Amino acid sequence: MLKTLDVLIGVTTVLLLFSMAVTVITQAITNIGSRRGRHLRSGLADLLLQLGIPTQEYAQKIADGLLRHPLIAEGKRKLGTVIHREEFTKLLLDFASGTGAQKLEVDAHDALKKALEEGGITDPDQALKNIRAISLQLEASNPELSNHLRDGLAILHEAPSDFVARVNSWFDQTIDRVSQRFTTYTHWITIGVSILVVLAVQLDMIAIADRLWIDDQFRNTIVSEATKQFSEKTQSPQNAANANLDPKPFYNLLNSTALITVPGDNPRGWLQRLKDWRKAPGMILSVLLISLGAPFWYNVLKDLLKLRSSLSQKDDLQRNQRQAASGGSDTRSSALAGDGPRPTWLSGERGDLTAVG
Protein backbone atom coordinates (compact mmCIF):
# COMPACT_ATOMS: atom_id res chain seq x y z
CA MET A 1 0.00 0.00 0.00
CA LEU A 2 2.75 2.45 0.95
CA LYS A 3 4.70 1.62 -2.20
CA THR A 4 1.72 2.42 -4.43
CA LEU A 5 1.11 5.63 -2.51
CA ASP A 6 4.78 6.62 -2.83
CA VAL A 7 4.61 6.10 -6.60
CA LEU A 8 1.55 8.37 -6.76
CA ILE A 9 3.36 10.98 -4.66
CA GLY A 10 6.37 10.82 -6.97
CA VAL A 11 4.24 11.18 -10.11
CA THR A 12 2.27 14.06 -8.59
CA THR A 13 5.46 15.82 -7.50
CA VAL A 14 6.89 15.69 -11.03
CA LEU A 15 3.61 16.95 -12.50
CA LEU A 16 3.52 19.80 -9.97
CA LEU A 17 7.07 20.86 -10.86
CA PHE A 18 6.37 21.19 -14.56
CA SER A 19 2.89 22.63 -13.97
CA MET A 20 4.54 25.42 -11.97
CA ALA A 21 6.82 26.17 -14.92
CA VAL A 22 3.85 26.19 -17.32
CA THR A 23 1.88 28.49 -15.00
CA VAL A 24 4.73 31.01 -14.78
CA ILE A 25 5.17 31.07 -18.57
CA THR A 26 1.41 31.39 -19.15
CA GLN A 27 1.14 34.29 -16.72
CA ALA A 28 4.07 36.02 -18.39
CA ILE A 29 2.43 35.69 -21.81
CA THR A 30 -0.93 37.03 -20.63
CA ASN A 31 0.67 39.90 -18.69
CA ILE A 32 3.01 40.99 -21.47
CA GLY A 33 0.18 41.04 -23.99
CA SER A 34 -2.32 42.63 -21.55
CA ARG A 35 -4.70 39.87 -22.57
CA ARG A 36 -6.95 40.24 -19.53
CA GLY A 37 -7.35 43.97 -20.15
CA ARG A 38 -8.05 43.38 -23.84
CA HIS A 39 -10.75 40.84 -23.08
CA LEU A 40 -12.32 43.28 -20.62
CA ARG A 41 -12.17 46.11 -23.18
CA SER A 42 -13.89 43.92 -25.76
CA GLY A 43 -16.62 42.99 -23.28
CA LEU A 44 -17.23 46.62 -22.27
CA ALA A 45 -17.41 47.62 -25.94
CA ASP A 46 -20.13 45.01 -26.49
CA LEU A 47 -21.99 46.36 -23.46
CA LEU A 48 -21.72 49.94 -24.73
CA LEU A 49 -23.28 48.89 -28.02
CA GLN A 50 -26.26 47.61 -26.05
CA LEU A 51 -26.43 50.93 -24.19
CA GLY A 52 -26.93 52.91 -27.40
CA ILE A 53 -23.44 53.63 -28.75
CA PRO A 54 -23.99 53.49 -32.54
CA THR A 55 -20.78 51.85 -33.83
CA GLN A 56 -18.15 49.35 -32.72
CA GLU A 57 -15.42 51.93 -33.34
CA TYR A 58 -16.92 54.44 -30.90
CA ALA A 59 -17.61 51.69 -28.35
CA GLN A 60 -13.97 50.55 -28.53
CA LYS A 61 -12.71 54.12 -28.04
CA ILE A 62 -14.93 54.67 -25.00
CA ALA A 63 -14.02 51.28 -23.47
CA ASP A 64 -10.33 51.99 -24.07
CA GLY A 65 -10.69 55.38 -22.37
CA LEU A 66 -12.38 53.77 -19.37
CA LEU A 67 -9.64 51.19 -18.84
CA ARG A 68 -6.84 53.72 -19.37
CA HIS A 69 -8.31 56.19 -16.89
CA PRO A 70 -5.79 56.93 -14.10
CA LEU A 71 -8.15 55.46 -11.49
CA ILE A 72 -8.61 52.21 -13.42
CA ALA A 73 -5.41 51.63 -15.40
CA GLU A 74 -2.69 49.30 -14.14
CA GLY A 75 0.66 51.02 -14.14
CA LYS A 76 1.43 53.72 -16.63
CA ARG A 77 -1.42 53.87 -19.12
CA LYS A 78 -1.73 50.09 -19.14
CA LEU A 79 -5.22 48.68 -19.61
CA GLY A 80 -7.00 48.05 -16.33
CA THR A 81 -8.23 44.55 -15.56
CA VAL A 82 -10.94 45.37 -13.00
CA ILE A 83 -13.80 47.87 -13.10
CA HIS A 84 -16.88 47.92 -10.89
CA ARG A 85 -20.37 48.76 -12.03
CA GLU A 86 -20.57 52.02 -10.09
CA GLU A 87 -17.16 53.09 -11.43
CA PHE A 88 -18.32 52.29 -14.95
CA THR A 89 -21.45 54.45 -14.60
CA LYS A 90 -19.70 57.41 -12.97
CA LEU A 91 -16.86 57.42 -15.49
CA LEU A 92 -19.34 57.42 -18.38
CA LEU A 93 -21.03 60.45 -16.84
CA ASP A 94 -17.63 62.07 -16.34
CA PHE A 95 -16.62 61.48 -19.96
CA ALA A 96 -19.96 62.77 -21.24
CA SER A 97 -19.74 65.94 -19.11
CA GLY A 98 -16.35 66.78 -20.62
CA THR A 99 -15.15 68.32 -17.36
CA GLY A 100 -12.93 65.50 -16.13
CA ALA A 101 -9.16 65.24 -16.31
CA GLN A 102 -9.41 62.66 -19.10
CA LYS A 103 -11.44 63.34 -22.22
CA LEU A 104 -12.64 61.30 -25.15
CA GLU A 105 -12.24 62.13 -28.81
CA VAL A 106 -14.96 64.43 -30.12
CA ASP A 107 -16.83 61.81 -32.13
CA ALA A 108 -16.81 59.26 -29.30
CA HIS A 109 -17.83 61.97 -26.80
CA ASP A 110 -20.79 63.05 -28.93
CA ALA A 111 -21.92 59.44 -29.39
CA LEU A 112 -21.78 58.83 -25.62
CA LYS A 113 -23.63 62.03 -24.78
CA LYS A 114 -26.36 61.20 -27.28
CA ALA A 115 -26.75 57.69 -25.83
CA LEU A 116 -27.12 59.18 -22.33
CA GLU A 117 -29.74 61.66 -23.52
CA GLU A 118 -31.72 58.91 -25.20
CA GLY A 119 -31.44 56.90 -21.99
CA GLY A 120 -32.90 59.70 -19.87
CA ILE A 121 -29.80 61.57 -18.60
CA THR A 122 -29.83 64.99 -20.27
CA ASP A 123 -27.29 66.69 -17.99
CA PRO A 124 -24.52 64.23 -17.06
CA ASP A 125 -22.45 66.91 -15.29
CA GLN A 126 -25.26 67.81 -12.88
CA ALA A 127 -26.17 64.16 -12.37
CA LEU A 128 -22.58 63.38 -11.41
CA LYS A 129 -22.48 66.28 -8.93
CA ASN A 130 -25.73 65.11 -7.33
CA ILE A 131 -24.39 61.55 -7.06
CA ARG A 132 -21.28 62.78 -5.26
CA ALA A 133 -23.35 64.91 -2.88
CA ILE A 134 -25.71 62.06 -1.96
CA SER A 135 -22.78 59.67 -1.55
CA LEU A 136 -21.18 62.12 0.88
CA GLN A 137 -24.41 62.41 2.86
CA LEU A 138 -24.72 58.63 3.05
CA GLU A 139 -21.15 58.36 4.31
CA ALA A 140 -21.93 60.85 7.08
CA SER A 141 -25.26 59.29 8.07
CA ASN A 142 -24.39 55.62 7.49
CA PRO A 143 -20.63 55.16 7.85
CA GLU A 144 -21.05 51.38 8.11
CA LEU A 145 -22.06 51.16 4.44
CA SER A 146 -19.37 50.08 2.00
CA ASN A 147 -18.17 52.49 -0.66
CA HIS A 148 -19.70 50.64 -3.62
CA LEU A 149 -23.03 50.36 -1.80
CA ARG A 150 -23.10 54.11 -1.13
CA ASP A 151 -22.28 54.84 -4.75
CA GLY A 152 -24.94 52.42 -5.95
CA LEU A 153 -27.63 54.01 -3.79
CA ALA A 154 -26.56 57.50 -4.86
CA ILE A 155 -26.74 56.58 -8.56
CA LEU A 156 -30.18 55.03 -8.15
CA HIS A 157 -31.41 58.11 -6.27
CA GLU A 158 -29.94 60.86 -8.45
CA ALA A 159 -29.84 59.26 -11.91
CA PRO A 160 -32.97 57.11 -12.14
CA SER A 161 -33.11 56.46 -15.87
CA ASP A 162 -33.41 53.79 -18.52
CA PHE A 163 -29.67 54.09 -19.16
CA VAL A 164 -28.78 53.22 -15.55
CA ALA A 165 -31.39 50.45 -15.54
CA ARG A 166 -29.76 48.84 -18.59
CA VAL A 167 -26.29 49.16 -17.03
CA ASN A 168 -27.48 47.50 -13.82
CA SER A 169 -29.23 44.74 -15.78
CA TRP A 170 -26.39 43.79 -18.13
CA PHE A 171 -23.12 44.73 -16.44
CA ASP A 172 -22.69 41.69 -14.18
CA GLN A 173 -23.61 39.23 -16.94
CA THR A 174 -21.15 40.94 -19.28
CA ILE A 175 -18.31 40.64 -16.76
CA ASP A 176 -19.15 36.96 -16.18
CA ARG A 177 -18.89 36.27 -19.91
CA VAL A 178 -15.62 38.19 -20.11
CA SER A 179 -14.22 36.03 -17.30
CA GLN A 180 -15.40 32.87 -19.03
CA ARG A 181 -13.83 33.89 -22.35
CA PHE A 182 -10.56 34.79 -20.66
CA THR A 183 -10.51 31.48 -18.78
CA THR A 184 -11.01 29.59 -22.05
CA TYR A 185 -8.28 31.64 -23.73
CA THR A 186 -5.88 31.02 -20.83
CA HIS A 187 -6.63 27.30 -20.92
CA TRP A 188 -5.64 27.09 -24.60
CA ILE A 189 -2.47 29.06 -23.86
CA THR A 190 -1.73 26.63 -21.02
CA ILE A 191 -2.12 23.65 -23.34
CA GLY A 192 0.18 25.26 -25.91
CA VAL A 193 2.84 26.02 -23.30
CA SER A 194 2.48 22.50 -21.88
CA ILE A 195 3.21 21.04 -25.32
CA LEU A 196 6.34 23.19 -25.66
CA VAL A 197 7.61 22.31 -22.17
CA VAL A 198 7.00 18.58 -22.61
CA LEU A 199 8.73 18.59 -26.01
CA ALA A 200 11.63 20.66 -24.66
CA VAL A 201 12.48 18.19 -21.87
CA GLN A 202 10.86 15.10 -23.46
CA LEU A 203 8.82 14.42 -20.35
CA ASP A 204 7.42 10.86 -20.44
CA MET A 205 5.20 10.27 -17.41
CA ILE A 206 4.79 6.56 -18.22
CA ALA A 207 8.57 6.07 -18.06
CA ILE A 208 8.76 8.08 -14.83
CA ALA A 209 5.98 6.00 -13.24
CA ASP A 210 7.79 2.78 -14.25
CA ARG A 211 11.06 4.06 -12.78
CA LEU A 212 9.33 5.03 -9.55
CA TRP A 213 7.86 1.53 -9.26
CA ILE A 214 11.06 -0.45 -9.82
CA ASP A 215 13.72 1.88 -8.36
CA ASP A 216 13.35 2.09 -4.57
CA GLN A 217 16.16 4.60 -4.12
CA PHE A 218 14.77 6.94 -6.79
CA ARG A 219 11.28 6.71 -5.32
CA ASN A 220 12.42 7.25 -1.75
CA THR A 221 14.53 10.27 -2.75
CA ILE A 222 11.62 12.06 -4.42
CA VAL A 223 9.16 11.24 -1.64
CA SER A 224 11.53 12.27 1.16
CA GLU A 225 12.43 15.54 -0.59
CA ALA A 226 8.77 16.39 -1.23
CA THR A 227 7.85 15.56 2.38
CA LYS A 228 10.75 17.64 3.68
CA GLN A 229 9.88 20.72 1.63
CA PHE A 230 6.18 20.55 2.48
CA SER A 231 6.88 20.17 6.21
CA GLU A 232 9.30 23.12 6.19
CA LYS A 233 7.04 25.48 4.22
CA THR A 234 3.75 24.70 5.93
CA GLN A 235 4.87 25.01 9.55
CA SER A 236 3.70 28.64 9.73
CA PRO A 237 0.37 29.97 8.35
CA GLN A 238 2.02 32.66 6.24
CA ASN A 239 4.14 30.07 4.43
CA ALA A 240 1.30 27.58 4.03
CA ALA A 241 -0.60 29.88 1.68
CA ASN A 242 2.36 30.31 -0.70
CA ALA A 243 4.18 27.02 -0.26
CA ASN A 244 5.84 25.94 -3.51
CA LEU A 245 8.38 23.21 -4.11
CA ASP A 246 11.95 24.15 -4.88
CA PRO A 247 12.30 22.55 -8.33
CA LYS A 248 16.10 22.46 -8.55
CA PRO A 249 16.82 19.17 -6.67
CA PHE A 250 14.03 17.40 -8.55
CA TYR A 251 15.19 18.68 -11.95
CA ASN A 252 18.75 17.58 -11.18
CA LEU A 253 17.55 14.13 -10.15
CA LEU A 254 15.41 13.68 -13.27
CA ASN A 255 18.23 14.91 -15.50
CA SER A 256 20.83 12.65 -13.87
CA THR A 257 18.60 9.60 -14.36
CA ALA A 258 17.97 10.51 -18.04
CA LEU A 259 14.22 10.83 -17.45
CA ILE A 260 14.30 14.32 -18.97
CA THR A 261 16.59 15.64 -21.68
CA VAL A 262 17.61 19.29 -22.02
CA PRO A 263 18.34 20.39 -25.62
CA GLY A 264 21.38 22.46 -24.66
CA ASP A 265 23.29 19.52 -23.19
CA ASN A 266 23.41 17.36 -26.33
CA PRO A 267 21.34 18.71 -29.25
CA ARG A 268 21.97 15.70 -31.48
CA GLY A 269 21.14 13.19 -28.76
CA TRP A 270 18.07 15.22 -27.79
CA LEU A 271 16.81 15.10 -31.38
CA GLN A 272 17.44 11.37 -31.64
CA ARG A 273 15.48 10.67 -28.46
CA LEU A 274 12.65 12.90 -29.66
CA LYS A 275 12.27 10.66 -32.73
CA ASP A 276 11.62 7.63 -30.52
CA TRP A 277 7.93 6.94 -31.14
CA ARG A 278 7.69 4.86 -27.96
CA LYS A 279 7.83 8.07 -25.92
CA ALA A 280 4.78 9.56 -27.69
CA PRO A 281 2.03 8.08 -25.43
CA GLY A 282 3.84 9.18 -22.28
CA MET A 283 4.46 12.68 -23.64
CA ILE A 284 0.82 13.09 -24.72
CA LEU A 285 -0.27 11.98 -21.25
CA SER A 286 2.18 14.49 -19.74
CA VAL A 287 0.63 17.36 -21.73
CA LEU A 288 -2.90 16.44 -20.66
CA LEU A 289 -1.97 16.12 -16.98
CA ILE A 290 0.24 19.22 -16.79
CA SER A 291 -2.47 21.36 -18.41
CA LEU A 292 -4.65 20.77 -15.33
CA GLY A 293 -2.56 23.44 -13.62
CA ALA A 294 -0.25 23.81 -10.63
CA PRO A 295 -3.00 24.57 -8.04
CA PHE A 296 -4.71 21.26 -8.85
CA TRP A 297 -1.53 19.18 -8.45
CA TYR A 298 -0.47 21.11 -5.35
CA ASN A 299 -3.73 20.18 -3.58
CA VAL A 300 -3.45 16.56 -4.75
CA LEU A 301 0.12 16.28 -3.47
CA LYS A 302 -0.80 17.85 -0.16
CA ASP A 303 -3.62 15.32 0.34
CA LEU A 304 -1.40 12.39 -0.66
CA LEU A 305 1.32 13.42 1.80
CA LYS A 306 -1.25 13.67 4.59
CA LEU A 307 -2.58 10.22 3.71
CA ARG A 308 0.94 8.77 3.65
CA SER A 309 1.72 10.23 7.07
CA SER A 310 -1.44 8.71 8.50
CA LEU A 311 -0.82 5.29 6.93
CA SER A 312 2.83 5.33 7.99
CA GLN A 313 1.89 6.01 11.61
CA LYS A 314 -0.71 3.24 11.53
CA ASP A 315 1.80 0.84 9.96
CA ASP A 316 4.39 1.64 12.65
CA LEU A 317 1.80 1.06 15.38
CA GLN A 318 0.80 -2.32 13.95
CA ARG A 319 4.46 -3.35 13.61
CA ASN A 320 5.13 -2.47 17.25
CA GLN A 321 2.10 -4.47 18.33
CA ARG A 322 3.26 -7.50 16.33
CA GLN A 323 6.75 -7.23 17.79
CA ALA A 324 5.34 -7.01 21.31
CA ALA A 325 3.13 -10.03 20.69
CA SER A 326 6.07 -11.96 19.21
CA GLY A 327 8.23 -11.13 22.22
CA GLY A 328 5.58 -12.44 24.63
CA SER A 329 5.23 -15.64 22.64
CA ASP A 330 9.00 -16.23 22.72
CA THR A 331 9.02 -15.76 26.50
CA ARG A 332 6.30 -18.36 26.97
CA SER A 333 8.08 -20.80 24.64
CA SER A 334 11.33 -20.36 26.56
CA ALA A 335 9.62 -21.09 29.83
CA LEU A 336 8.11 -24.27 28.41
CA ALA A 337 11.43 -25.33 26.85
CA GLY A 338 13.28 -25.33 30.17
CA ASP A 339 15.15 -22.04 30.10
CA GLY A 340 13.87 -21.43 33.63
CA PRO A 341 13.13 -23.68 36.62
CA ARG A 342 11.08 -26.73 35.63
CA PRO A 343 7.65 -26.84 37.26
CA THR A 344 7.12 -29.84 39.48
CA TRP A 345 3.96 -30.88 37.66
CA LEU A 346 5.99 -31.59 34.47
CA SER A 347 7.82 -34.49 36.16
CA GLY A 348 6.16 -37.64 37.35
CA GLU A 349 5.72 -41.27 36.51
CA ARG A 350 5.97 -40.44 32.76
CA GLY A 351 9.40 -38.82 33.16
CA ASP A 352 10.61 -35.36 32.10
CA LEU A 353 8.08 -33.87 29.63
CA THR A 354 10.52 -31.14 28.52
CA ALA A 355 13.26 -33.50 27.51
CA VAL A 356 14.37 -33.34 23.88
CA GLY A 357 15.60 -36.37 21.88
Give structural attributes.
357 residues; 2 domains; 15 helices; elongated
Description:
This protein has 15 helices and no strands. The chain is mainly alpha-helical. The chain folds into two domains: 2-27 and 202-310, no CATH class; 34-183, no CATH class.
What order do the helices and strands come in, and which of them pair?
Elements: H1 2-32, H2 35-50, H3 56-67, H4 85-97, H5 106-118, H6 124-141, H7 147-158, H8 162-201, H9 205-214, H10 216-233, H11 237-240, H12 247-256, H13 267-274, H14 280-290, H15 294-337
How much of the sequence lies in strands comes to under 5%
Rg (CA only): 35 Å
Biggest sheet record? none
Overall pLDDT confidence: 83
Helix content: over 70%
- SSE sequence, one letter per element: HHHHHHHHHHHHHHH
The figure for the number of domains is 2
Number of DSSP E strands: 0
Runs with pLDDT <50, length 5+?
A: 235-243
Overall 3D form: elongated
Distance between the termini: 45 Å
Structural class: mainly alpha
Helix count equals 15
TL;DR?
By secondary structure, the protein is mainly α.
